[in-house]
Amino acid sequence: MLGQITRWLRRGVTGGVAALGLTAFGAPALGQAASGEPILVGHFGCLTGSEATFGISTSNGIRMAIEEFNAKGGLGGRPVKLVEYDTRGDDKEAGAVVQRLINNDKVVAVLGEVASNRTLAGAAVAQAAGIPLISPSSTNERVTAVGDKIFRVCFIDQFQGYACAVFAHNELGGNAALLYDQSQSYSAGLAEEFKKNYAKLGGKILVEQSYNRGAADFTAQLTAIRNAKPDVIFVPGYYTDVGSISIQARRLGITAPLLGGDGWDSDELGRIGRENIEGSFYSNHYAADQPDPRLQDFIAKYKAKHGAIPDALAGLGYDSANLLFDAMKRAPSQAGDALAAAIAATKDFPGVTGSITINAKRDASKPAVIVELQADTPGQPPRPRFVAKIDPPTDK
Amino acid sequence: MSAIHELTQKNRPGVGLTVAHTAALVGLVLGTGAVMQWVVGPAAGIYPATILRQIGIVAIAAVSLNIVNGYTGQFSIGHAGFVAIGAYAGGAVSFYANSLGWVGAYDPAGLLTPGHAVMLAGAAIGAGAAGAAGYMVGLPSLRLRGDYLAIVTLGFGEIVRVLFQQTQSQVFDPQAARALPISGWWPPPLGGAQGFSSVIPYGELFWIYAALALTVVWCYRLKFSSSGRAFLSIREDEIAARAMGVNLTRYKVRAFVLAAALAGLGGAFYAHLNLAVQPKDAGFQKSFELIIIVVLGGLGSISGVLLAAFGLGGLTEWLRQPTSVWPAALVALALVGVVQAVRRDIDSRARGRAMGRALLVIGVLTGLFEGLRAFAAWQGFKLDDIRIVLYALALISVMLLRPQGLLGTSELWLVPGQLMRRKAKAAAAPSLRTAGPADPAAAPATGVGGMGGGVTEAGGDEGWP
After folding, report:
1. N or C of chain A: less Cβ packing under 10 Å?
2. Does B51 touch chain A (CB under 8 A)?
3. What whole-number distance in Å separates Cα of residue B134 and Cα of residue B150?
4. What class is the A158-284+369-390 domain?
5. In contact, B432 and B425? CB cutoff 8 Å
6. CB contact under 8 A, A96 and B198
7. pLDDT by residue (tens digit) across A349-378?
8. The complex's ipTM?
9. Do B59 and B306 contact (CB within 8 A), yes or no?
């Protein structure tokens, strides 16, 4: 027993001395790693709760960006340090933790949230305090309308609805059916935009049906859709419901492809839907098999660290942090106004989810991709394959 | 607080006394708000003040739920529906009054601007709307009991949620709002599934805590009014209450409407603090958060519910970055020691046992928590990640150690008197329960809560012959 303890102690001391040696001599020898007073950056996300995977993916992306930035010397030798709080997926907590990040931790900027309503709660606080906030993935239009300190690096629902409508009309046909989740603002909003743009392109919405999140039976809605014989069914819901919808649609003999938004983006969808969801499409922020060296480099690094292909949220988290660092470098000071002005001036920033330009509404102007779900080998769960890239309309 | 208690006990005060009482109560309500706004708020700092504002609103909703679940003993799980009605009504009144140009721009320094007047009017409308909803759902459903009532109230919360989902989209553009014809206001433009957002931030500490003080005073006076006694009698035994001439349905509906109206008041402030309201705020998850607070504080105890609201609200924030609990454990131990030393209802052996038990419980909990902290530090993970697990564990341990809630059915300011007096009473009268009415202060404590069962105090059993 005693021998064991001394062994532990010895090992601990040796390790400590080695670590000390590394910081004392190793770091200057490398001449790269950042030291000095750290700059604090905040992140608030749903790290626990029913949407935890969203928050954790985003956090992984942000952490990777920070590690790389610090390894390259940080901001003039000062490293960036992340302060992260969990919102539990609760709107009430979102406002409070942003307050905590700004007033207690004194962060220079805040990154987060995924869900638009929680970003809105945090944005009100950040705007009042004059601290810039960048949302990686809140797609609701209202988010950046809060004020001149609020930005995002993803496209907005309006554009996603447009992209789906363009793809549906040009590639799949001029007759569509709509099946959306009326309990989710995301889904209802996307359906609205799709309808508007599809009609503008000359398409016809044959039938419009809705459901509530977590419903088990979609037979009534799908039967109405089958009778209308559409070319495509637009289902802008979340992946759990979409999986069941695809199974029930095929069972009813509907062969038209389903089309959806980024709420489909999860490996779970392929596992639930299997062969039923094959041949369906969705719009997303990026596709893992897109031939872009920057993206492929990010995917390789992420895979090495976390053992999985990053989802879009990880990519957007990574981009939001990197875009912030880029602005930090350009800003004359890290004060709220100067930093916000630098972020607003971002143009053609090379992100892994596409080239990002911050427009006058402080939204990201960037392309969307359309992916198709296909299995590598028959019987395997299908995976998304890149099929098209839709650029933002020039008049927007 | 004991002064108010004295006030409530005087049955027929003269005009002068009535004026004095009213002034004292108004002073208490405004004074609480003023102390929070100008003393506690600035001393605490911006972030803790935000948490205090949130807790204040949760406390309003929980204290109001206590009227139904605590006093009257009816199990309602749709309370968040009333909170949401108040939130939507209050938020919509302020938002549209602003976009229609009835009030000026928001002034962060002011506490009584025209905007605040509209906000208070909105809060009154919210309370009224929630109270009306309480009446509508209460009248048919409060003839039911127990599980059946629970199911009906659950259904009510879900109906409210779905109704708010079906509203029109919010009109953000002031010009569009002004140009909207009368028919455009129906169905109301409350944002549908997107929720109602961009409410003006009128939720200052002053108003929230004035509203909380109003709620607490109201509920406290209600508890000792004739309605309150009827509520308590319904909780204890419906058949006996009916035999004594208590109109069950009328009093149940009355409890429901009062609770709903106060919940609506809290909801209106929630809208002005959170600045956004979602249909899911009416869902049963939010109702359960309130029920947890009421059960944890003690069904029927206002101070217990306040204690639970502040304790749980503080706990979830403190668990983000937990500090050492040794000092708190020592303070708790000292408190238990003082209480056990002065209580006169038990003999020295029972006192020794109680002290030993307290030492064991506090010691074990402290040891476990410190061990966990050390383990987390050694393994390099943040306790923040398992915050909700710790929160749930805290709830479980409180319920195991004190199934009747923190304060049972008693009030914080009545507990010392009870501990001191119980021995004397046991000697004077053979039955504790009949001794109750002779001493009004101890009266609410003699009833045994629905959740608690007979485990209120070990000392009580020893008083029985």
Report:
1. N
2. yes
3. 14
4. alpha beta
5. yes
6. no
7. 999 998 899 999 999 989 999 999 998 888
8. 0.73
9. yes
